[in-house]
Amino acid sequence: xxxxxxxxxxxxxxxxxxxxxxxxxxxxxxxxxxxxxxxxxxxxxxxxxxxxxxxxxxxxxxxxxxxxxxxxxxxxxxxxxxxxxxxxxxxxxxxxxxxxxxxxxxxxxxxxxxxxxxxxxxxxxxxxxxxxxxxxxxxxxxxxxxxxxxxxxxxxxxxxxxxxxxxxxxxxxxxxxxxxxxxxxxxxxxxxxxxxxxxxxxxxxxxxxxxxxxxxxxxxxxxxxxxxxxxxxxxxxxxxxxxxxxxxxxxxxxxxxxxxxxxxxxxxxxxxxxxxxxxxxxxxxxxxxxxxxxxxxxxxxxxxxxxxxxxxxxxxxxxxxxxxxxxxxxxxxxxxxxxxxxxxxxxxxxxxxxxxxxxxxxxxxxxxxxxxxxxxxxxxxxxxxxxxxxxxxxxxxxxxxxxxxxxxxxxxxxxxxxxxxxxxxxxxxxxxxxxxxxxxxxxxxxxxxxxxxxxxxxxxxxxxxxxxxxxxxxxxxxxxxxxxxxxxxxxxxxxxxxxxxxxxxxxxxxxxxxxxxxxxxxxxxxxxxxxxxxxxxxxxxxxxxxxxxxxxxxxxxxxxxxxxxxxxxxxxxxxx
Length: 576
Known about the structure:
Low-confidence stretches: 5-33, 364-370, 472-483
Distance between the termini: 57 Å
Strand content: 15-25%
Oligomer: single chain
Number of helices: 10
């Protein structure tokens, strides 16, 4: 069944699609007769073909803005931040009642019709759901090619010159089936990263270039704190979240290249009524340490359709700018398209800018969002925040009680940063102190004590310890040759049981628990098949009565000889 987007809108919102845009990896010049420009930034659309009214309403709020801008000779453009289709079955395919709408050919063609209906050129970046056409496409490459073709794109990235020396630049996610960990991580491939680095190098601030960046998720180091807890603990908050080197690359480029003036992202489905949804490159020294975000303002973008909002807001962003600076505004789709000024940014030369909030936080009373506690390491003027834990004279952190509201953080000797967040032990990025992921969950930690102790040994003690340990014969305690103290994070419960929190093999601590969606789907099918098999051979009336558990690798042990694969407490008696 082929769905026509125009027919799904209310009669007043029907439209004639604009001509396909022409976006390539090279700059497409759309110069205005002046230096002024207006850009609509649309957050996660998650189009559901059964629920189109909000999209028609949202579009109607922008049309008069564009008409006025074009009549004044201003450059106009639309940028979509991706996640174009609903990740559910939307009754769109009569041959399947389980196919997800997101990532399908129908999804991308419908999104292209909608985005092309604003009577302005549009560009789009891929989000974490845009290659989710799992039933239609075998590979990410096939899915990506359909996405690109539907939107008239040659590459996942884009660059458009909306006004004189003012570039709109975007990068999109290119992995879903082939994701190493969670499929909902927004992954910018290395080719795009190299392209972006070359672009900012060849368009320097001292030549007057201004670059506005658009990605589905924000980069690590953006300082945005109005997040969803599931993104934090599952490792899909930031661009290339699970790849430490790539994850840090984006903020490094922002710090180095002052031509990057603003960076817009979506992903969290949360509103724009909080000052934490916009961060500035600098702040008054009296208020705190220098944030080290180059010359870039970061802005989170909400959603257009009611059913996709996690806090009830329906909002889009509007950029209004010229050679002297720009404004970031909210277009409120629940208030007849009312335009609210959120922040004014004034350029101070080519390499600096000053931002001013235009409104106070409008709502923190609800409980549908998660404001992340982010440690503050301080600087020469400011001390670390009150949660910072210091080592005692023995080089340890004394054990302290953990409750849901405990605020504490510290650096390990290796440079890793760990801390408490809503009863969870979280690893933070050592440079930006942005949350990376879950180490120990609140379910295991609250009510216990946590501490850090020295675990390094002198050479004689080390030799005595390991000479009888099977598989460790001849161990020479190589770590002792380095300057880094060896440490252990330990948990202590009320019964005296001590748990050692071991780091990952690469030295990080946060657990990359959530795997690729394709892998998880196959695992679910195997369990279902096992239940049906068990019900058959045991004559059970209901397969759900079958006792089926799963075992996962890799299996870890301190022994040098692997003889057992049982999982204590699951496939073998618990060790506790």
